[in-house]
Specification:
Strand content: over 45%
Structural class: mainly beta
Number of strands: 21
Shape: elongated
Radius of gyration: 28 Å
Order of helices and strands: HHEEEHEEEEEEEEEEEEEEEEEE
Number of helices: 3
Length: 488
């Protein structure tokens, strides 16, 4: 699964969600989503809340971003498309889709210092197409599991930063997600009568059918992923190290577990059966319990360093993600059975149909980035100084998917990302806010390494290519956005 780019010396990780894919805040996104040792405004609430204590002014940031994804074309596969229960030549080939939709969204954060040593902030990302996509996938069909659902969910975090000693900051935050439980109780009434000479098919003996949904409920319960961080401005204690900032953070794992309880009762009413005058009712009870886990967010341990000079800055970030505990968004039968007056099938006789095996490993990720001021000049009136900064970043992220069995076709590969950005800052001419305005632009290009998942044509196995000898892997993602920052 790992492409030729795996020979490079950098390590990394596939993304956990929208913000782990490209970052939060246009300045960080312009340098590849890194630089959490340089946090000094409200956008740091997701990665290192300790930096919130460095805020000099209350601020509000609002941005809009666009994300587009395009993956390698997949071949047609064999599938029971006519749904007759047989896999044969009567089934038209199935064309798998990698059109996972757009993941455009709004990013917003607001924070303020309280006194000289405390800062608080709240931030969020809200997709504009859907608040959250919850969807399972069939493991036998080729799917980019890291991209189908994961960029499509809201993210919300709130936290604080505190200066413990001069130059030493600590902070904490919580990232909000949810867990879901869905229940449905349904009764199907199916009258069946004995055949007569006038009947032309079996369908003439059944009906009319009545479907009664008694109860449907969906509970979304909040769950929290803790985030803690520390930061050290070395220059405040050791003058020769002025400009050096070291930081660390940890985030706990979370995700969206979904429990589904289906209580199905089918009442088969047999009419005109032999010499019986009254109909015979045969109840069939089929309770089924399903589980799946969507939007898994791995635990993250991160270290970062930065050197901040007057007109330039560089940063290096290292992330360790605990992917080995990941659960795929594949529905699993965890209980159920069938009960009739004639036969009873217990949980032990009900077997899971989505059998698959994958090997997922923990990974490291390194992000390099920097900024430089290219213009600084005074403007007339209350427009203050005009400052223009440029920034760039690079990330290499190998896939955590090490291998899998022949029962599944989960697609993923190493990913390189090149990023760039531009900031334009000037004074606030209306004398309403407490500081300057900034306009931040960013762009990112993500390239998935080319590769192939071998799967030969096999007319007896669903999900195999009709003619090809495997599934090509690769693709491109690009993201652009604009953010404004107001110093309040």
């Amino acid at each position: 699964m790992v492409g030729a780019l795996g020979l490079l010396l950098f390590g990394g990780v596939a993304h956990a969600g929208a913000l782990d894919l490209y970052g939060f805040g246009a300045r960080s996104m312009g340098r590849g989503g890194g630089g959490f040792a340089r946090v000094n405004d409200s956008t740091g609430v997701f990665v290192n809340p300790a930096g919130l204590a460095r805020m000099e002014n209350a601020d509000l940031t609002v941005g809009y971003h666009v994300l587009r994804m395009r993956f390698a074309e997949l071949p047609e596969v064999r599938w029971d498309t006519n749904r007759d229960g047989w896999l044969d030549d009567d089934d038209p080939a199935l064309q798998p889709s990698t059109d996972y939709g757009n993941a455009d969204g709004v990013m917003i954060s607001v924070g303020r210092p309280i006194g000289k040593r405390l800062g608080i902030a709240i931030g969020g990302f809200v997709p504009v197409n859907q608040l959250m996509r919850i969807r399972t996938f069939e493991p036998a069909l080729p799917t980019y599991a890291m991209y189908e659902n994961r960029p499509h969910r809201y993210e919300l975090s709130a936290g604080f930063g505190w200066e413990q000693l001069p130059g030493i900051h600590a902070g904490g935050a919580v990232e909000l997600i949810a867990r879901a439980r869905y229940e449905i109780a349904v009764t199907l009434d199916a009258p069946v009568r004995t055949a007569t000479e006038e009947d032309g098919s079996v369908g003439d003996l059944v009906g009319p059918l009545t479907l009664d949904a008694h109860r449907m409920s969906l509970d979304l319960v909040p769950a929290l992923a803790p985030i803690v961080g520390v930061m050290w401005d070395a220059g405040e204690l050791v003058e020769p190290l002025d400009g050096l900032v070291l930081a660390g953070s940890w985030r706990g794992s979370s995700g969206l577990p979904v429990e589904v309880d289906v209580d199905l009762q089918a009442n088969v009413r047999v009419e005109q059966a032999g010499t019986l005058d009254d109909p015979v009712i045969i109840p069939v009870l089929a309770p089924i319990r399903l589980d799946f886990f969507d939007h898994y967010v791995p635990a993250r341990l991160a270290f970062a360093g930065a050197w901040e000079a007057e007109r330039w800055a560089v940063n290096v970030d290292a992330y360790r993600y605990s992917w080995s505990q990941m659960r795929m968004s594949i529905a699993e039968v965890v209980g159920g059975g069938l009960e009739t007056p004639l036969v009873t099938i217990t949980d032990g006789s009900l077997h899971e149909g989505n059998l698959y095996s994958v090997q997922i490993t923990d990974t490291w990720n390194f992000r390099l980035g920097g900024d430089a001021r290219v213009l600084s000049k005074p403007l007339p009136g209350q427009w203050g100084d005009l400052d223009i900064d440029v920034r760039a970043g690079f990330v290499y992220e190998p896939t955590p998917l090490e291998g899998q069995g022949t029962e599944s076709a989960i697609l993923d590969s190493d990913r390189m990302m090149f990023a760039g950005g531009l900031s334009v800052m000037h004074g606030e001419p209306f004398d309403v806010m407490g500081g300057p305005l900034s306009w931040d632009f960013y762009g990112q290009l993500h390239k998935l390494a080319d590769g192939t998942l071998p799967r030969g044509p096999d007319p007896t196995v669903a999900g195999t290519p009709v003619t090809a000898n495997g599934f090509d892997i690769g693709g491109r993602l690009w993201a652009v956005g604009l953010q404004t920052r107001l110093a309040l």
